[in-house]
Fold each of these.
Amino acid sequence: MNGPTIADHFDTLAAKLLTVAWDDLDDVERAAFEFFEDLTADPSIVHARLEELPDRPELLNLCEHYDILDKIVLFADEESGVRVRLHVFLPGYFDRPHNHRWTYASRILRGQYRHYLFGNAELDDHVDPQKLEVIQVREEPVGVGYALHHTMVHAVVAEPFTVSLVVRGPAVKDRFLVTDRQTGEAWWQYGAGQESAQEALQKRMTPARLQEVIGRLAEWDLF
């Protein structure tokens, strides 16, 4: 009988995230940072998970490719909604002020991004994006991590090919609001459960794209 593999070790470490109190940001940060340390201390754990993704359709089908961002799902617990992802920010990446459906934690593995924090603003259909004020600006370089509550409004401008490791908690709402301070527009975005099959297919990462991203991660000596 075969024993546990290195890839199995990833699941063992990630399983600890299922006990996190996601409404307690201190607990989120503590558990996520411990998880990040475990993975960065032994890159072979993530490497093994990346190598097996083509044979893990339940994870591969959650991976997404956009013009300015690749999202690789390394772990997903269907019952709780907890996920672990790698984000690769492509040239030209920026996002508009928004909140999230879930609380998350992140650590930068390569590159850096400029992080704009607008505070715990009440966002609804009547928000005036042009009145959103930046409360804090941070540089998030390699090795830096943070935890962000789902109510926090923020935006990121990333250097090309910045890579981050992300742990996201259970979704606590069905939608989140995106705002555009230039045009004054705001619109809701919804979770995958409310997308059409065509919308899901359009953003789904192909196996060929996955191999291309894995190759880049290897070239950068990350995993």
Amino acid sequence: MKACIFDLDGTLTNTLESMTYSVNQTLKEMGLSQITKDQCRLFVGNGARVLMEKSLRAAGDPEGLRIEEGMEIYGRIFDENCTYHVTPYDGIVEMLENLKKKNIRLAVLSNKPDQQTVKVVHEIFGDTLFDYAQGQKEGIRRKPEPDGVYAIMDNMHVKKEECLYVGDSEVDIATGRNADLKTVGVLWGFRDRTTLETAGAVNLIEKPEDLLQFV
């Protein structure tokens, strides 16, 4: 392997508190009820718009009639708070450093907005660990479509057989499959083993250091 592409939320960083906080501040400003962390955990993975659509339905707007208003407010609040209480999972930084020692190129591909993805990666991991970070942006279909994976592989000049994809959700398992990459699911994130196995996961790991066996 010459490269690893990682999902961000639930894979590298525990961002659940950050996203729950931003969603609830949005709902509060809209005069709607709050959601719980457990609800937010189930709502994330498909990008900000899907997160807000599901949150609005749970909070008292079952038809999602206020989605545009919600997206405008959420975009502002999340940009200000996207690193709120965000931390790497235990063992992540050490695992990334070990991959770098093996000359593995590292990238992040997230369904959260591109600006916030880059901001989180920069503020949490600095400028030396990752070669590339990309979030959801115009012109590139979001995961599980493989467009973002292909764009990153082109940027890093690696082939499919040289690249590993790593994530914590059923969206990530489908992304890796759609891109025809060897894919590893992680069990410390937002989904459980049953969910990932049902999605077709073959390679599952319980600790970050377990990833090293695949490179």
Amino acid sequence: MSTTAATHAEASRARRDLVSGEVMDEAGLIRFVAGPDGAVTPDLARKLPGRGLWVAADRASVEAAARKGLFSRAAKARLSAPPDLADQVADLLARRVLNGLGLARRAGELISGFEKVHAAVAAGRAAWLIEAVDGAEDGRRKLMAAARRQQNPPRMLGLFRSEELGLALGLENVIHTAFLAGRAADRWTSDVQRLSGFRPLFPEGWREEP
């Protein structure tokens, strides 16, 4: 099997959500495993040993699985799932998304700074427009206006503070960032989509900005 075919097969693998019973693509699920002490552990990279326990990637499903003892039922063993398991998953996903931005910058797939980001958006090269949630409104509005003029506008992420973005990218005063379209952006998007089931990707008020 070619590398491309193997990658496609892995991406399209289906699993059963233990809450709804529906068979879903792995991309829309969170994998959990039982630790040595019987604690339910999130496995976002899907690499930990042990039988996978799969739950839809949204807060309500993870909370229901923990509250109703569905992990124990699926594993046919006594497992403990903490009540804040959904918060743990959200935090881990957010960290994974930030780490992905750092990797993208080092690979030349991510650019920052208003002028560079505006040029990438205007040229239709940006898959994602990533704005610091505590950044100034004026620059964000201009970039969002440029994005709306595109036939295929970039998606928006406004979840992290400037300091968080700066730590992830190894830069200071990070406000405006663009993830360039390509395979790296496609892979990163999978984690962002899972995170969207636990946290809004940007403040609701941004939808109303002209």
Amino acid sequence: MGLDNSEAPGESPGNGSSDGTPPIQGLSYPLQLASAVMFVAELDRSVAFYREFLDWDVTVHNESVALLVSPDGYQLYLRTRGRRAQHPVGTIGVQYLAWTARNVADLRRCEQMLRKYSTQVTCQTVDGFTLIEGYGPDHVPVMVTYPGPAQAPRHEILQRIYGW
């Protein structure tokens, strides 16, 4: 059964459900990104990196997948694909995730951590925010900004986006 552009029975646009189901508290727009799945070469190495980098809790961890959860409930699944797995840049699909630091001190902490994993770390200030870019343990681009888009709305496309 496919979806069409009409509302589901009992729903009204922008107001959640009219069937009495309360809307999710704090969610003022139709959808919110809740989870991401990232394939990695070595699970334990990636779990250690992202746990420290994001300062999130590991709530599930087995031999092939781990789940990291933020204090706000956002989720990052890390799934091992082995050392031979490839992630060609420029192909269809998500290329990287950009994170937002809590404050300047957190941004600098992330920069120092990226420098432990990558010799190619850049820092630039564009359009009212600072962007730090480096590479994680599988040489996947890792970007962190401060302030985030809610505090410093983006008014132009970063030239870096066109680089892939």
